[in-house]
Amino acid sequence: MKKTCVRILPPLLAAALIAFAADVSVDYNHHADFSKYHTYSWLGVHANGLWQDRIMSAVDSQLAARGWQKVPSGGDATVSALGRVTERDTLETYYDGFPGWGWRGWGGMGTATTTAVPERIGGLTVDIFDSGNKQLIWRGQASDVISSKPEKNEKKMDEAVEKLFKAFPPQGKG
Q: How far, in Å, CA of 115 to CA of 95, rounded?
């Protein structure tokens, strides 16, 4: 029994970590023929200075892995990316006193203290347009792409971009 748990637990933990790494969503033009796109050019990356090169590098890597070639201008498709960081508050409540319970009939002398803890949330949107007609053909969005530890940010963002492009290019023309 113990050997079974030891063998099963690591893959389950890895799957859980991957599942919670980034929340992604992808949509695309179901009438676009993705087999006609082989080259791409960048329209631009809008993000803070450190992230521009990281985002471009991660997207370039994913597109190259799928056979797309980057050209300075005039590609079959045009890529644009937007990286943003917002801040939201997470409420944390602490109960103290003795016995500390104060609900469902359990009386007690205690207090509750709620504090707002600011949390940084990173998001990334990657758009791909048909260069000829300027129509959006693919959009991928990822949230939770930054870590509270700066040394992990690049890896977390790379994982999010990899997850975005997992099923790229879409198969078949609708």
A: 12
DSSP-based helix, strand, coil % in the chain, nearest 5: 30, 40, 30
Contacts of 89 (CB under 8 A, 6+ apart): 116, 117, 118, 119
Pick left, alpha or beta for residue 77 (phi over 0 → left; psi -120 to 50 → alpha; otherwise beta). beta
Mean of per-residue pLDDT scores for the chain? 79
Residue 139 predicted with pLDDT over 80 = yes
Handedness of CA 91, 97, 98, 103 (dihedral sign): negative
User: 32-84 pLDDT, tens per residue?
Assistant: 999 999 999 999 999 877 789 989 999 999 999 999 999 999 999 999 999 87
Report the predicted TM-score, pTM, of the whole model to 2 decimal places: 0.69
Q: Domain 22-92+118-164 carries which CATH code?
A: 3.30.160.670
DSSP β-bridge partners for residue 27: 139
- Domains in the chain: boundaries: 22-92+118-164
Sign of the dihedral through C-alpha 61, 62, 65, 68: negative
